[in-house]
Design goal:
With about 60 residues, the chain is mostly helical. It has a domain of about 30 residues.
Length: about 60
């Protein structure tokens, strides 16, 4: 949570699983994609942070 930006770019042929890799499945939770796993990690990190007044901004394009 030190002000870093990141990007994940998925590039491949049509119907090759890019959306599934990024989003995953709701059930079972073991098939979650990169986006929900990253959000869980970010929110856990914020919750555990020592500074409760940190600001957090998300943008999904």
């Amino acid at each position: 949570m030190e002000g870093y930006n990141g990007t994940i770019c998925a590039y491949s042929q049509a119907v090759s699983g890019k959306s599934f890799t990024m989003q995953g499945a709701v059930d079972p939770s073991s098939q979650k994609g990169i986006i929900p796993r990253a959000f869980e990690h970010i929110f856990e990190s914020v919750q555990c942070a020592e500074n409760p007044k940190s600001s957090l901004c998300f943008a999904v394009c």
